[in-house]
Specification:
By secondary structure, the chain is an all-alpha fold. The chain is built from 11 helices and no strands. Helix 3 crosses helix 10, helix 4 crosses helix 7 and helix 5 crosses helix 11. The radius of gyration is 18 Å and the shape is globular.
């Protein structure tokens, strides 16, 4: 049984360094080396996760708006936007979703599921999870009226879904003592609340008040589904679980935006 996790104290606030570390971790952008990261540094930097998401969503949204402005139909434009997110992040969260899906599809106990999740190869469940992730996001975006609506939805989804990561870590313990999920440290409640506030603010900016409310509810439902599944089957979170939290929340937010705004 895992020992109760110790919440890592956050270093002195430094938004610039936290944003740099968050962007270095979440994207494949050629940023300067962050150097040696202090213990709990990534946990503290998680307050900037939704800011990185804002940049990612804005970039993907500009791709969608440009594509539709040039006369491309909504679905291909939406697929290009999703592809932009995948390329910018190196499929970081998609990889986590696929690994969790393979683990859930494996026969055996908790240890067997964790072993399967460590395997870099994707099985049938992982591939299907990726197909549905890309398909649902693209279909939801294509249902929105116009490229700029897509851009607003992408901004909201990319920011608010990444705010769910530190929130999920408040209600779960690491499933194992090693691995990325455990080594990152655990963000304190202030970090999680700050990330949630930023994510919600971006959602209001991108979707308006009614859309942001729907997005927030959808994000909580999507993230909670993964949290409940992980707690029951794995006993907590891993880096893959947190990636799946982001993916589930992003899908749910875009579906909600399609229902409210289309």
């Amino acid at each position: 049984m895992n020992e109760s996790p110790v919440i890592t104290p956050s270093p002195a606030p430094n938004w610039r360094s936290d944003l740099h570390l968050a962007a270095s971790f979440l994207t494949r952008l050629p940023l300067p080396d962050s150097g040696v990261v202090a213990a709990g540094g990534l946990a503290s930097a998680m307050r900037c996760f939704p800011l990185v998401g804002l940049g990612l969503g804005l970039t993907a949204g500009l791709v969608a708006a440009t594509a539709t402005g040039l006369g491309l139909p909504p679905l291909p434009a939406a697929l290009l936007a999703v592809l932009t997110l995948v390329l910018l992040t190196g499929a970081l969260h998609e990889d986590g979703l696929a690994d969790l899906a393979d683990g859930m599809g494996a026969r055996g106990d908790r240890d067997r599921r964790l072993e399967v999740m460590r395997d870099s190869r994707s099985g049938a469940f992982g591939v299907l999870a990726l197909v549905f992730s890309v398909g649902l996001r693209a279909a939801a975006l294509a249902a929105l009226p116009g490229g700029w609506r897509m851009a607003g939805a992408l901004m909201a989804a990319a920011a608010l879904s990444r705010a769910m990561i530190p929130a999920a870590m408040q209600v779960m313990a690491p499933a194992r003592p090693d691995g990325l999920g455990a080594s990152a440290g655990i963000p304190n409640a202030s970090v999680a609340a700050t990330a949630a506030g930023i994510g919600l603010g971006v959602a209001v900016l991108g979707l308006g008040l009614a859309g942001a409310l729907a997005a927030a509810i959808a994000a909580l439902l999507g993230a909670s589904a993964v949290v409940v599944l992980a707690r029951r089957t794995l006993g907590g979170y891993t880096g893959d679980v947190l990636g799946a939290v982001q993916q589930a929340a992003e899908i749910a937010i875009l579906l909600a935006a399609a229902m409210v705004l289309s």
